[in-house]
What we know:
By secondary structure, the chain is mainly beta. The protein is built from one helix and ten strands.
Amino acid sequence: MWLSSKMRTAPPTADTDLGVTTISGDSVGVVTRGEVRALPVYGPGGYIWMPENGTTVLVIKGGPGGEEQCVAGMRQETIPVGMLPGEVYLHGPNDTSVYLRQNGAVELRGDVEISGSLMVNGVPYQPCTCGGEETP
Length: 136
């Protein structure tokens, strides 16, 4: 009948909201209009991020009624002075960062630890033993 054809289930919708994290980990708790716990955290491919407690984050709500939610990210920090289009700047705690520059340079800030082999211009790195002592 005409009425039954008009009574369809609502299509899934997506909505967003800003929230503040209350529980950190691989699934977080966030307060938006109320607290929701055990939300998965999503980010760009290859990037793993664990928001700290008190961080303002973007919460995406989807599915019928918006009951499926996830944390998608946070407002980005101030863009570094002189940053060019296409460059990537990853920053972490204690002023640590990885900066992928448009000219092919990679800038690292912080204590750098290398696990595995280190190649320099395609050749395995070997410390200089010029003065009888190994120098890095």
